[in-house]
Amino acid sequence: MADESRRKVVLKKDPLDGILSYCKMKHPNEGILILKGKSKKGIITIDSLVIPPFSYGGQTFAGFPHSFLPFDLSYVGIVHSHPTGPADPSVTDMQNFFGLVSLIVKSPYENSEDVFAWDSDGNSLEIIFED
Asked: DSSP H helical segments within the chain, as ranges?
């Protein structure tokens, strides 16, 4: 098993652009997406996104019923927006953790500087942005 302190997230350009666009579209409400990719030797690579079926959101929450998700081993986590405030995970965010990584995007959703990654213990993870 990889050293948890070295776990990193690789976020490809297409999903990054999709995340930023989706968050802008949902603002001032929170938006939520499923991250797809793979994990190998502590490196979580995100290469695509899925809009969860029956997702919902408001100004301070976003979610989806997990029971409607098709079985897919390429799900690696979720991303959601924080329309106001910091990109730190809330208690609710941690209680609803899904997969290996949670990305939180803070307003104004302009570029990679607005995207933050967290593990299931609430520890910050390094993000490497790739074309």
From this structure: 13-26, 91-95
Specify the pTM: 0.93
- Give Rg (Cα) of the chain: 13
Give tens-digit pLDDT for 34-80.
999 999 999 999 999 999 999 999 999 999 998 999 899 999 999 99
Distance CA 38, CA 74 (A): 6
Is the per-residue pLDDT at 4 higher than 80? no
| Closest C-alpha among 3, 60, 48, 42 to residue 22 | 48
The reported pLDDT for the residue numbered 5 is: 57
Q: Which helix (H) or strand (E) holds 64?
A: none
DSSP letters for 68-100 = GSPP-TTEEEEEEEESSS-SPPPHHHHHT--SS
Look up residue 43 and give its two tokens.
Answer: 């490196």
Q: How many residues does the chain have?
A: 131
Neighbouring residues of 29: CB distance < 8 A, sequence distance ≥ 6: 57, 58, 59, 62, 83
Residue 43 CA from chain centroid, whole number = 15
